Amino acid sequence: MAVHIKIQPSNHEFCLEGNDTILDAGVRAGLALNYGCANGNCGLCKARIVSGKVKKTRHHDYVLSEAEKNRDYVLMCACTAATDVVLEALEASGENDIPAQKITTKIKRIEQTTDNILTLHIQTPRIQRLRFLAGQSVTLSLDKSTRTDFPIASCPCDDRNLLFHIPCDSDTPFVQALIHNSKKGDTVTVTGPHGHFLLNEGSRRTQLYLAYGTGFAPIKSLIEHAMALETPATMNLFWVVDKKEDLYMNNLCRSWEDALDNFNYHPVIDTDAVEHLLEKHSRLEAVDVYIAGPETLTRCASEKLLAAGLPDTQLTVSTVD
Ligand code: FES
Known about the structure:
6-stranded antiparallel β-sheet; alpha/beta; Rossmann fold; Ubiquitin-like (UB roll); Elongation Factor Tu (Ef-tu), domain 3; 3 domains; 33% strand; globular
């Protein structure tokens, strides 16, 4: 049976089923709860019970003081909810609330998604997951000479399994080493996260996503995060490519459109994406626009949209090489 958790002061809510920890259920629901090790060692996931009952699910090495115990503090990574619960807990409200991290991960899979794109799947240790916000990037390195920044193409709701879309035609040492010398089980060091290409979670305006090529990666992260939050806002994805084969996750986008009433997918092949977008959405004061892709294209699209009346506070841009 599912129980209901409410976090104060944000009033974010989510359901918890079975013996899930409160932390795991909250992260899966898209909340940016404060945590570190997720394993009972650091104390960063400390929260105060306002009402309801929790049940400890695992031993934790971190020691709560007597004063904390008396004030009903618990560790969210070491307990589940026995009843509906209201908790007072810290949540990140922006990139400055997320600490810099350095994590040694392992390659779980390298997949040739198309002739031009590799999907890199890396996994963090169970006790050191990457805390990040949807849309952010990290620096990946195989060794000291191969460091490159990439946007994370997955959702923070799965903080152990990190996905990246790697263009094979890049001649950076990292990409060349990945293509020619890397395999499952190899080590990748992740440093970060960084960047402020973030979802405006408080907005109820229609969301327009404009992805140029592999600019789809951070936009996928934003969309999956919006889905985890069950946003009521309408989402429209315009994915802009030169040819149909470059829509390397076309089926995924179509499956989102089939599954969700509030999601629309518009592949844009070799035409002016902004013109196309403006034909469908002329009331720019009623939308939030997220653009990701190469700098020349994102700059040009931004200028056109601002000139067409989009308020600059409703425009968020990420440059992806
Ligand atoms: S996240 Fe470290 S103790 Fe819970």
